[in-house]
Design a protein that fits this description.
It is built from 15 helices and no strands. The protein is mostly helical.
């Protein structure tokens, strides 16, 4: 099938957005450390992102659906988040840093579920899969994660990450000019009609199940680097752990759409939860950093499948006009609530009983999630 300008532009936007995340996610804590902030101050600053997304993502999802536009809202969000990054990197003092990092995440994090919603619409109208576009985000993240360490050494260390970060953002802004909104056929939403989402019991229960399976995953995202460092891993080894996980997503995003339509989404997510249980159990059994880095390849059978199936199931659960709002709530649950709970509980467990205890907790949570997904599917079958 011939790719058109819309698909190429959306693929490029995914590539460069996640490429920029590969700078911000691993290196921002190191940058803050180089500025003299303590570990507790850095921890607070890094928790702001998940916290602020709880409020920001549903709000901007509603705004996008209300005005039936993704491109214009994303342009506004990116412009304001870039201003926040200028303030973050160019000012000094904890108060200013906290304010600008709040600004950065309040406008940056809500943009990706909006882009996801536009990708879902654009690909479905063209008979393509969401994963065929989303895979470019994994390529961008893994590519920059692999080369960023070498480049930063050449550029003079983490003090220069702002220039690398800003340079990457030139391209998403250029590509956004070639993207068009995919107008929906449903009614325009208002604050009164938004109540439809919160009356949808199936959607709300699905969000609870997603939260259960996401807490262990986000805990691993937040604390794997620290756990590996305590086991003797170098900074480059931690970068490899991130890069390997992102690389393994690529074939899944490319080909999974050929198979997932054969099974109900809840059945697939139940199986994913079982695989997560096995994954976290393996993390408790080994303390060699290289073995744990190798186990990051299981990311392809867990997160990659979880995210694609969850995104598509939200589309099926909600009317078309609630697309951006639904994807934003999904992102809020996964990145916001799960991030805060996973980081807090995981950090406490690690301090009390060591890093391996985090993964015991993760295994239990994933097993409970598996029971919830399979149980819900069984109830639905009986009712139908």
């Amino acid at each position: 099938m011939k790719l058109d300008k819309q698909i190429i532009s959306l693929s490029g936007v995914n590539f460069f957005y996640y490429a920029s995340s590969a700078i911000l996610l691993p290196y921002l804590p190191l940058y803050l450390q180089s500025k003299g902030y303590s570990a507790s101050e850095i921890g607070l600053l890094m928790m702001i992102g998940p916290f602020i997304s709880i409020f920001a993502q549903p709000f901007w999802g509603y705004v996008s659906d209300r005005f039936n536009s993704v491109r214009n809202i994303v342009f506004l969000l990116w412009s304001l988040s870039l201003l926040g990054s200028f303030g973050l990197f160019l000012t000094k003092g904890f108060g200013l840093t906290l304010g600008f990092i709040l600004m950065l995440y309040f406008f940056l994090l809500p943009s990706i579920p909006l882009i996801d919603n536009l990708v879902v619409k654009s690909t479905s109208h063209r008979g393509m899969s969401y994963g065929s576009v989303r895979l470019w985000g994994s390529i961008g993240f893994s590519g920059v994660a692999l080369i960023s360490g070498l480049l930063l050494e050449e550029l003079g260390g983490v003090a220069n990450i702002p220039y690398f970060y800003w340079a990457l953002w030139i391209f998403p802004f250029l590509l956004l000019a070639f993207i068009k909104d995919e107008k929906g056929s449903g009614q325009r939403i208002t604050l009164s009609t938004i109540g439809t989402i919160f009356k949808n019991k199936n959607f709300l229960w699905f969000m609870i199940m997603v939260l259960m399976i996401s807490i262990p995953h986000r805990m691993n995202d937040a604390l794997l680097g620290l756990y590996l460092s305590k086991l003797g891993a170098t900074d480059s080894m931690v970068s490899w752990a991130w890069a390997i996980a992102a690389c393994t997503e690529i074939p899944v995003f490319a080909y999974i759409n050929r198979y997932i339509h054969r099974y109900h989404e809840l059945t697939i997510l139940g199986l994913v939860s079982v695989l997560y249980t096995i994954r976290w159990l393996l993390y408790t059994l080994f303390s060699d950093p290289w073995v744990l880095i190798g186990l990051q390849t299981t990311h392809m059978l867990t997160f990659a499948v979880l995210w694609i199936v969850a995104v598509q199931y939200v589309v099926r659960l909600l009317p078309e006009q609630f697309g951006s709002t639904g994807q934003s709530i999904l992102a809020m649950v996964f990145m916001g609530l799960a991030g805060i709970i996973g980081g807090s509980v995981g950090g406490w467990l690690s301090e009390q009983w060591g890093g391996a205890s985090m993964y015991v907790f993760a295994s239990v949570m994933s097993a409970i999630a598996a029971g919830m997904f399979f149980g819900t599917q069984a109830v639905m079958r009986r009712r139908s």
